[in-house]
Amino acid sequence: MTILRIVSRGVDRATYDSVRATLELDRKHPLGLMMHGVTEENGVVQVTQIWESEEYARRYDEERLKPALEAVSAPVEAEITVFQLEDLVTL
Predict the structure, then answer these.
(1) SS3 of 58, please?
(2) What stretches of 3-87 show up as alpha helix (H) in DSSP?
(3) Topology, domain 3-84
(4) Which of 31, 33, 78, 85 has the highest CB neighbour count under 10 A?
(5) Where are the domains of the chain?
(6) How far, in Å, are 6, 7, 81, 85 from residue 47 at the CA level?
């Protein structure tokens, strides 16, 4: 089932940008990722993603995200809120 994830790791924009550059999301699109967005509030970045399934998200976290986080000494642990989407319309 399609899910919406909100991920808060407590990192700043510079750390997020370093991880994003390593992952190359815009060129190496992860299997199952439908949407990736970021907001910043009070200097802290929060990521919102839509995945085709929770399994795709978990696989991405373990295989690609965790090594990228560790490479820049960013926290691997995060507060993750998951919602199952029942109706998704894309334009």
Answers:
(1) helix
(2) 13-23, 54-60, 66-71
(3) Alpha-Beta Plaits (3.30.70)
(4) 78
(5) 3-84
(6) 6, 5, 11, 17
pTM for this model (two decimals): 0.91
pLDDT tens-digit series, residues 20-77: 999 998 899 999 999 999 999 999 999 999 999 999 999 999 999 999 999 999 999 9
Beta strands in the chain (DSSP E): 3-8, 33-41, 44-51, 79-84
Match 């978990």 to its residue by tokens: 58
How far the first Cα of the chain sits from its last, in Å, is 20
For residues 1, 81, 64 and 69, what is the CA-based torsion angle, rounded to 10 degrees?
Answer: 180
